[in-house]
């Protein structure tokens, strides 16, 4: 009886935290809509939504600020979910699509489309997904030696990321007349993101996001260990492949829109895990909501702090994420 009461309190606490995270995500979203080189009052935002406002702010809101904020929110969700899944299936708290090279795989594939086939941007996301999956397979092969160890995953990921980064640099050198878009990809940013980019990312965000949420039970079982998971009837290796594909699709769809935006998948799942625990039924939605809050708030700060000069959000995320990664590295090793 006491154990049941304790479980009920734990569930209520976690649900309460999810509500708080949802409020933070809403604040970040609204903050992104209001703030910028031009500040838009909430009353004019409401007027623009209802169509009762003919002010110039309506054009800024509907065609610039709103699509950019939606893209930022979806990117935050995708990268946070991807990082949370990778940390579970690789049994590595340092796993992140950017650090271990999956984002680089998506990036080099996407840049090939941008540079070599600029008229076929609609295919960037599926091509980036293929690149991300190939990078993930390479990392698994390089890290496998009588099993997978967290340190080997990181080392293999860094090696794959460096190799793919060299490929990206070489492609940019040999196509120097067409590298402007590719150069922005290297940093990661939301500048000039508009409705076509929303259309490009949302089907993948919704589809892969739903699959990620539905996989929470299998991820929880995997965390019990391979032997226990097999005893419970889970096909461990097939489950890992499917979950890796989901994580790769989430990362690839984000990379295809904003470029190599790093550390979201590292910072957000850890912050969520510290507060809400390791139960993926709660950790995944918590990561998604905190991902929205982090990316939208950081993007708003990046574009407002040095106005009229706009700082790519990837620079701010690197400034936050690199020290956090070093802290985790010293704690885990």
Gyration radius, in Å: 20 Å
Assigned CATH class: Mainly Alpha
SS field, number of helical segments: 14
Structural class of the secondary structure composition? Answer: mainly alpha
State mean pLDDT (0 to 100 scale): 84
Tell me the CATH architecture.
Answer: Orthogonal Bundle
**Overall helicity:** over 70%
Task: Describe the protein.
The radius of gyration is 20 Å and the shape is globular. Helices cover 77% and strands 0% of the residues. The longest helix has 34 residues. The chain has one domain: ABC transporter involved in vitamin B12 uptake, BtuC. Helix 1 packs parallel to helix 13. With 333 residues, the protein is mainly α. The protein contains 14 helices and no strands.
Per-chain topology:
Layout: H1 2-34, H2 42-50, H3 56-89, H4 102-116, H5 124-143, H6 150-174, H7 180-187, H8 195-214, H9 216-222, H10 226-231, H11 236-258, H12 264-276, H13 280-304, H14 313-332
